[in-house]
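Progress narrative, Year 2. Work on tRNA pseudouridine synthase B from Candidatus Kerfeldbacteria bacterium RIFOXYB2_FULL_38_14 advanced from sequence curation to structure prediction during this period.
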Amino acid sequence: MPSELEKILVINKPKGLTSHDVVNVVRKISKERRVGHAGTLDPLASGVLIVLVGRAATKRQAEFMNADKEYTAEITFGKVSKTYDAEGPLTVTASAEKLEKLSPKIIKDACQNFIGKFKQKPPAFSAIKVKGVALYKKARRGNLNEAEIPIKEVEINSITLLKYQTTDKESFPKIWLKIKCQKGVYIRSLAQDLGEKLGVGAYLSELVRTRVGQYVVEQALDLQSLTNKYENLH
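Result:
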């Protein structure tokens, strides 16, 4: 592949694709086998995915993996999921009366418990490996011991409540948070833990990664635009 195509690509990953799916698309259109990404986004998440193309770029993977990140998260209260997001079956965990007691102040106060460095338990349905086996594989087989899930120290710099939507007869209350954090934070776990802290349960209903280091979603290319860009170089 010509050296001018060895670069850092800022992709706006669409919802529904895995990060590896995006890498495969880039590998195909660039005709370069040395392609990797710098930080997994779950299939149900969208937003900034740094894709590294070529030898020089892939050598910088650790640099981008260690960059701080920013997310916009939609969290729904009153239900929980085994996957901590909308992918798993949902179970109602709180009555309408209990959910009506939530307020922006109560939620903001609860969020303060997750600012700074703290111990976080990753989701059972995650790619973290224990003894060489990804947790999600064991979880799907039903033979994952909760004690096997490694507790990790993570750091969240700030959590801002952007919007609070109260419950009604047809929906559960939701919030939208802006989260600035360091590497290794699971926003799915944050949603789960916040629901537990408030005593009502919660799951991550939508997630957008809006920034990785200096790269923001506004400058990210969708896959069609990326395809067109590469075609114009030939």
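The first strand starts at residue 7 and ends at 13. The domain at 69-212 is CATH 3.30.2350.10 (Pseudouridine synthase).
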